[in-house]
Design a protein that fits this description.
Number of helices: 2
Structural class: alpha+beta
Largest sheet: 4 strands, mixed
Strand order of the largest sheet: 2-1-4-3
Radius of gyration: 22 Å
Distance between the termini: 67 Å
Shape: elongated
Low-confidence stretches: none
Oligomer: single chain
């Protein structure tokens, strides 16, 4: 097996900024920000916009879009005359 080709994993906190949800896991991602975790240690933190705590599929709070109105507007604007 070749030496030096495997990534170096370290413990990192992923934090959802929209819901405040955080999880400690391992990652190769680099960041300069740190956060104090529940065990009292400081870990690097990666801030995310969305996670399972805030995604509409997992929360059940889906936003319905007016696709019919969009299609009609498109056809009026670009449809055959």
């Amino acid at each position: 097996m070749k030496q030096g080709i495997h990534p170096i994993y370290r413990e990192v906190v992923f934090q959802d900024v929209s819901s405040g949800f955080s999880i400690l896991t391992r990652s190769t991602a680099n960041t300069k920000d740190t956060v104090k975790w529940e065990d009292g240690k400081e870990y690097p933190v990666l801030k995310m916009e969305i996670s399972s705590a805030s995604h509409p599929f997992f929360t059940g709070k889906e936003k319905l879009m007016d696709t019919q109105g969009r299609v009609e507007r498109f056809n009026r604007k670009y449809g055959k005359k």
